[in-house]
Amino acid sequence: PEVEVTAQCLPDRIKVLFRDHGAGFSDEQRAKAFELFYTTKPGGTGVGLTSVLRAIQLHKGVVQLTNHPDGGGVVEVVLTPAAKQV
Hints:
Oligomer: single chain
Number of helices: 2
Order of helices and strands: EEHHEE
Largest sheet: 4 strands, antiparallel
Distance between the termini: 45 Å
Strand order of the largest sheet: 1-2-4-3
Radius of gyration: 14 Å
């Protein structure tokens, strides 16, 4: 499946969006997506988004799951660059 990746470098943050063109996320999937071992894929391990969330949180960022208005799921990662040291 095709995944679109877009990135924005804003003055106060960096935003990266990953969008697929599938069915999108159900309410249950959004609620459980970051639970360890939760998966909707046959043969999936359920560690992917959990690992992503942990890594992003360690860098003081956030991860959100939404649905695109035209269909498909969107994973949004937002990071705030560390303050420059002098």
